[in-house]
Amino acid sequence: MSSERTGRKVTKTGVVVSDKMDKTIVVKVNRQFKHPLYKKVVRKDKKFKAHDENNDCRIGDVVTIREHRPISRDKCWVLAEIVERSK
Description:
This protein is mainly beta. Helix content is 0%, strand content 57%.
């Protein structure tokens, strides 16, 4: 998955791992980078809580989330689009 900056808003692409909360999804975003000393490719992932107004997303969907003002204590991302539905 990836991260990119459009203007001042950051967008990230990831997979929905939880949709149990009302109007909230948890998105897991993977990233790869080369370790500066050992030159090995390291994979890390991080989970973000994002606002899903219409409860459209399901577990396994590939989505794009966009940075937003804080909506709650943990939530400062908004669902931008559903890239691919889960099977």
